[in-house]
Amino acid sequence: MIVDTDQARPARQSGTIRPVTHEDVPALKTVIDANGLFPSDMLDDMLAGYFSGDASDDFWLTSDDGGPVAVAYYAPERMTQGTWNLLLIAVDPDRQGQGRGSALLCHVEQALAARGERVLLVETSGLPSFARTRAFYQKCGYEEEARIREYYQAGEDKVVFRKLLTVSISENY
Amino acid sequence: MIVDTDQARPARQSGTIRPVTHEDVPALKTVIDANGLFPSDMLDDMLAGYFSGDASDDFWLTSDDGGPVAVAYYAPERMTQGTWNLLLIAVDPDRQGQGRGSALLCHVEQALAARGERVLLVETSGLPSFARTRAFYQKCGYEEEARIREYYQAGEDKVVFRKLLTVSISENY
């Protein structure tokens, strides 16, 4: 999933990270639209399995600071033991530069590590316009692991970032 | 998907390549079991969307020679324009070495190219025990495009093979 994220060094930011609820959906659509990621009405289908419990290994988290201001969605890779994929992470543009993206990503990593998962992958575009996104993942300790040429469309590669998960002492975000 | 395939140079082999039907399922389970790929009762779930029409972009083909003796399953990669993934290809061990795997794979490539698709990916294990499978894809013109370390489990990489699709003159298999 192609995403945009905040780039600044983590500053002290308030709010809590918690699972997404039905009530969050309109605000999360606004976050999706503001980032221009994909048509936000796709969110209903993407969340359907999570809300129904049919996709019980789909995890959706939000950063709530007077309302949902960021979203992360991650799920296991099929046919693997302990490998996960961060399918979406996005922060409200008005709340970027406050470390919310980094905090949300660290939260995901620690939640996965705590349950014994091994690897988190993130996939994004190789286009120049996604340089900030790729820099964000690198800043968060992700290595460029692979590149599939011409993946998304002619001329647009997919870049796969990867991080080995380890349990660390909880940080104060 | 991890697969096993025949390795011999394509020999003249009889039979037809056609879409999978409900009646093929027991024979295809036998092919899956004989190759030790995954529990063959998973096939029912894998085929459910294809048979119901809900997954109308899932394609399942069999090589029929007095009954189904091989199977191929391919589907589009989400969020791409023209990139597909060969999720399964397997040949009855008693019918391997007759060029059936190569013929089935060529058929898939030509069917995709004919509808204007661009890229076919195949993913398999990096373990030494899958050397024959990787050699099969290389023989069929696939390049090793990427490797995700420790993907399937600790110590087992995923290798991604890739081929750019082009329409070619039909061959007699």
Automatic annotation (TrEMBL), chains A, B:
<dbReference type="InterPro" id="IPR016181">
    <property type="entry name" value="Acyl_CoA_acyltransferase"/>
</dbReference>
<feature type="domain" description="N-acetyltransferase">
    <location>
        <begin position="15"/>
        <end position="166"/>
    </location>
</feature>
<dbReference type="InterPro" id="IPR050832">
    <property type="entry name" value="Bact_Acetyltransf"/>
</dbReference>
<protein>
    <submittedName>
        <fullName>Glr2683 protein</fullName>
    </submittedName>
</protein>
<keyword id="KW-0012">Acyltransferase</keyword>
<dbReference type="Pfam" id="PF13508">
    <property type="entry name" value="Acetyltransf_7"/>
</dbReference>
<keyword id="KW-0808">Transferase</keyword>
<dbReference type="GO" id="GO:0008080">
    <property type="term" value="F:N-acetyltransferase activity"/>
</dbReference>
<dbReference type="InterPro" id="IPR000182">
    <property type="entry name" value="GNAT_dom"/>
</dbReference>
